[in-house]
Amino acid sequence: MSIATPPTLDFQIAQYWLNNPIQLLPVISMTQDQFFEFCQINRKLRFERNAKGELILLPPAGGESSSQNLSVASQLYSWH
After folding, report:
1. Could you tell me which of 51, 67, 71, 74 has the fewest CB atoms within 10 Å of its CB?
2. Whole-prediction pTM
């Protein structure tokens, strides 16, 4: 039995989690309020749910995505 090793680069981690969402259904079904509470309890992690109710753990932003976000924000600020 082989053990999957998670990728190390930011992009690879993002792709891994997008392609492998955490499936809680049919074991656990959450309302919007329960999902909100779940996120409040786990503040250090970022979660999203897709249309199927699958829970997706988002990776932390890395240097490249932070740089891109700053670029977009500065362009919007300059445009204002």
Report:
1. 51
2. 0.47
From residue 5, give the alpha-carbon distance in Å to each of 11, 12, 16, 24: 15, 12, 11, 22
Contact 18, 8 (CB under 8 A): no
The residue type at 48: E
Contact 17, 56 (CB under 8 A): yes
Average pLDDT score over residue span 64-72: 83
Burial class of 55 by CB neighbour count within 10 A (0 to 12, 13 to 18, 19+): middle
| Mean local confidence (pLDDT), 24-52 | 82
